[in-house]
Amino acid sequence: MKKIGFLSFGHWSPHPQSGTRSASEVLHQSIDLSVAAEEIGVDGAYFRVHHYARQLGSPFPLLAAIGAKTSTIEIGTGVIDMRYENPLYMAEDSAAADLISEGRLQLGVSRGSPEQVIDGWRYFGYDAPEGMTMADVARANTETYLKVIDGARFAEPNPRPMFPNPYAGPLGIEPQSPGLRRRIWWGAGSNATAVWAAQQGMNLMSSTLKDHESEEPFHVQQRKQIEAFRAAWKEAGHDFQPRVSVSRSIFALVNDEDRRYFGADRSSSDQIGQLDNGAAIFGRSYAAEPDQLIAELAEDEAIQAADTLLLTIPSQLGVDYNVRALGNILTMVAPGLGWR
Hints:
This protein is of the alpha/beta class. The chain has helices at residues 23-40, 59-69, 87-100, 134-149, 191-200, 218-236, 256-262, 290-297, 301-305, 318-333; strands at 3-8, 44-47, 74-81, 105-110, 184-187, 203-206, 209-211, 244-248, 250-252, 271-275, 278-282, 286-288, 308-313. It has one domain (3-337): TIM Barrel, CATH 3.20.20. 36% of the residues lie in helices and 18% in strands. It has 10 helices and 13 strands. An 8-stranded parallel β-barrel has the order 1-2-3-4-5-6-8-13, surrounded by 7 helices. The chain has a 3-stranded antiparallel sheet with strand order 7-11-10, with no helix packed on it. Helix 3 (87-100) packs across helix 4 (134-149) and helix 8 (290-297) packs across helix 10.
């Protein structure tokens, strides 16, 4: 058995052929898609977060709205860039969204990926102190956030407050949402950051790209990253079992519409490229008839090692197409792999 969710980039474009022509449309369709996905048995609704782009940017209003309209589906991000976040404000927002959804938030955070602008965090009022990089800042912000949502009390109370304080001594951020601390995921781009995530007690979220750390295929490198994470988790001695997700572009070619969109997919093999910190490997996508998909996915070592699979979806194709595409994976592919 495997949890299967979708991961939406939340693109919108005024192009006449786009199914999401405005920010309003992509937000409302994201809610509608989550409701429909829950109805067909999808386990999770996850959303990318990017700034300065025609994509979903501020996740918590959307997550709260989805939480209010659904009852079972997990709701998450993949990922929030912690270079841009005030960890205390984020603690308030995430706790509120988690309480609205009654404990279904699965929040992916990370250092983030290359953005649309240069040093975009500076416009948000953030910068790295002397001797630190923004990657250091992202990890420090994450550590602060984890402590705060875990109930840390650190603020000196006013001796004459407007309202009586609920307890003596330092105060912490409110509201608190029990259990949220165990539902935070780190988006790891390397083996080393996967180990760091395990040491911090965060679940592992691994995407379709990572640092190119050997000459092995992407799925083998990613499987080894998962193994390094689990070994570090065991060594750290945490008192709960972690989760591991991987994301993939997977489409079952069932009719002419599917073949028109994905039948000539040119990303059917791994790609090597460059990111800010050096060489990166981008994992292949999958698009084939259901029986062929089953055979190909059975050979993907990282998918087999993970307990959660996030299917990246083309949000601009609209709700109806994406619900059908997700349903095809659930009914025609997942049973053949023992995931359902």
